[in-house]
Amino acid sequence: MILGGSSDVFYSLGDFFQTIFLFFDWVQNKFNTILLLLGFFGFAYWMNVQRKENIKAKNNPNQIK
Question: Which of 3, 6, 23, 36 sits 20 to 30 Å CA-CA off 42?
Fold first, then answer.
């Protein structure tokens, strides 16, 4: 059995990487957009929690200041 040599290995490796990188071509900027929206949602949620805690603290005269 005669092997094709190292060029077959390198071409196969190149084809493999081209296939893998097609995934990144499909994803493009979607992942960054999702992270950005998740960050905005998390910030809005946390500010709402802080607002509720500030109201609760304002109405509590027994707290240490």
Answer: 23
User: In one letter, which amino acid is 39?
Assistant: G
The CA distance from 40 to 34, in Å, is: 10
pTM (global) more than 0.70: no
Domain edges within the chain: 29-65
For residue 18, CA distances in Å to 7, 13, 24 come to 16, 9, 10
What single letter denotes the amino acid at residue 50?
Q
Place of tokens 């304002």: 58
Q: Would you write out the chain's pLDDT as a tens digit for each of its 65 residues?
A: 456 678 888 899 999 999 999 988 888 899 999 999 999 999 999 999 999 999 998 888 887 76
Which single residue is written with the structure tokens 């060029």? 7
